[in-house]
C-alpha cells in the first residue's frame, strides 16, 4: 500500500485574530494517509507542531453533515468549503478549506492499493 500526502491551503477562522486580515490569512495544511500505519486514520498538519490524527470516516462525513469525535469537529460550510475545528491543551484551531481539496485527498486514499505480488 502506498501512502498519500496532499497539501492544501486553508484559512484560519478565529475570533481572536488581531485583524480581519489575520483572520482570513491562508496557511498551508498537509493531509496524510498511511494505510500501512492504520488504514482507518488520516493526519492533518497545520503550521507549527500541530498535528491531529483522526478517523478518515469523520473527515468524509464532515463534508456532508456536522460530525465530531474527541477533539476534532468537521462540518460543511456552504457548498464549497468545510470547516475543521481542533481542540488541544494549547487551545482551539479552526480552519476553513476547500471541500474539493478534501474530496480529492479522500479519493486518493481510497485508490491507494496493495501492489499485487507475482
Account of the 3D structure:
This protein is an alpha+beta fold. The chain has one domain (4-111): Roll (Transcriptional Co-activator pc4, Chain A), CATH 2.30.31.20. The protein is 20% helix and 46% strand. It has three helices and eight strands, in the order E-H-E-E-E-H-E-E-E-E-H. It has helices at residues 20-23, 56-62, 99-111, and strands spanning 4-12, 26-33, 41-46, 50-55, 67-69, 72-77, 81-88, 91-98. Strands 4-3-2-1-8-7-6-5 form an eight-stranded antiparallel beta sheet, sandwiched between helices. The protein starts with a strand and ends in a 7-residue tail after the last helix. The relative contact order is 0.22. The mean pLDDT is 87.
Instruction: Please state the structural category.
Output: alpha+beta
What is the helix content? 10-25%
Outline: globular
Strand content: over 45%
The CATH fourth-level homologous superfamily: Sporulation-specific cell division protein SsgB
Succession of helices and strands: EHEEEHEEEEH
Number of strands: 8
Number of helices: 3
Query: Regarding CATH, which class?
Result: Mainly Beta
Estimate nothing, just give the exact number of structural domains.
Answer: 1
- Per the CATH scheme, the topology name is Transcriptional Co-activator pc4, Chain A
Low-confidence runs: none
Strands across the major sheet, in which order?
Answer: 4-3-2-1-8-7-6-5
Query: How does the major sheet shape up?
Result: 8 strands, antiparallel
Under the CATH scheme, the architecture is Roll
Radius of gyration: 15 Å
How far the N terminus sits from the C terminus, by CA atoms, comes to 15 Å
Question: Would you tell me the overall average pLDDT?
Answer: 87
